[in-house]
Amino acid sequence: MKHTLALHISIAFSLLVLCAKTQAQNNQNPPKPKPEKELTKVNDTIINTQENDSTAVKLKYGLRAGIDLGKILQSYLDDDYSGFEVLVDYRLKPNLYIAGELGIEEKNTITDYLDVTTTGSYLKAGIDLNAYDNWLDMDNMIYFGFRVGASTFNQTLNEYTIYTTDQYWAPQLTSTEAIDYDGLTAFWAEVLLGFKVELFNNLYLGANLQLKFLASESQPDNFEVLYIPGYGKTYDSGIIGAGYSYFLSYRIPLYKRSK
């Protein structure tokens, strides 16, 4: 108990000494008063001649374009998929961008009873809102986005097996005659949450998550759409889907503007 009391007294005494030293240094070196504005009268007009010592932050404006690395990697690893996507954005205001994606996809959907190939292209357009407050000379993003998407595609039923629980003849009927469904379309909306980090000057690495809401789609006769390029699979997600992307992009700087 005595040792604990002595320790507390020593700590308190040390803090008092430190505060006294700090106060003495402040008295010896008082803060310099801000200089008053220097005014000059020219032709009965008062002009402020004091130089502005604040640092103006310059923001880069230009077209930023990139490619989806996720689709390239999936195309390499998955024999039933092939896709490529280009991403672009352009800064309108310090934290507001117009943005979009353009891509093509080919997907084979194979189950125990179906073999279907979907090929097509898509376009998405919308805005990104940066919620990250950058430090000086930084140009990173944590953003929320909104897109409207449209796709045009074809679907080919390569092979199918008719399944029934009351099978009289064996084996079950299987058809290998391909059936084409051309000129299909789909429209949807999606919200995004993502980030972009400037690795080097004007070179960015980013990723995002997408939540998608299907608005309309074509309905082939005696069949249904299984996959929509740009949207994803539909046979087990209904009108709500999800997606992701990670990408590398480069900004072509056109000009700078003070924040």
Query: Secondary-structure element order, as H and E?
Result: HEEEHEEEEEEEEEE
Ranges where pLDDT stays below 50 over 5 or more residues in a row are: 1-9, 15-27, 34-53
Could you describe the largest sheet, including whether it forms a barrel? 8 strands, antiparallel, barrel
Per DSSP E runs of 2 or more residues, the count of β-strands stands at 13
What value does the Rg take, in angstroms?
32 Å
Shape: elongated
The quaternary state of the protein chains shown equals single chain
Terminal CA distance: 60 Å
Q: What's the mean pLDDT score? A: 81
Helix content range: 10-25%
- The largest beta-sheet arranges its strands as 3-4-5-6-7-9-10-13
- Content of β-strand: over 45%
Helix count equals 2
What is the name of the CATH topology? Answer: Porin
Any idea what the CATH architecture is?
Answer: Beta Barrel
Tally of discrete structural domains: 1
CATH class: Mainly Beta
Q: What class, by secondary structure content?
A: mainly beta
Protein name: DUF6048 family protein
Pfam family, one: DUF6048
Keywords: Signal
Signal peptide: 1-24
Task: Tell me the layout of helices and strands.
Elements: H1 2-28, E1 39-42, E2 45-48, E3 58-68, H2 69-77, E4 81-93, E5 96-110, E6 114-130, E7 141-161, E8 174-175, E9 179-200, E10 203-217, E11 227-228, E12 232-233, E13 240-258
Antiparallel strand pairs: 1-2, 3-4, 3-13, 4-5, 5-6, 6-7, 7-8, 7-9, 9-10, 10-13, 11-12
InterPro entries: DUF6048
Keywords: Signal
Protein name: DUF6048 family protein
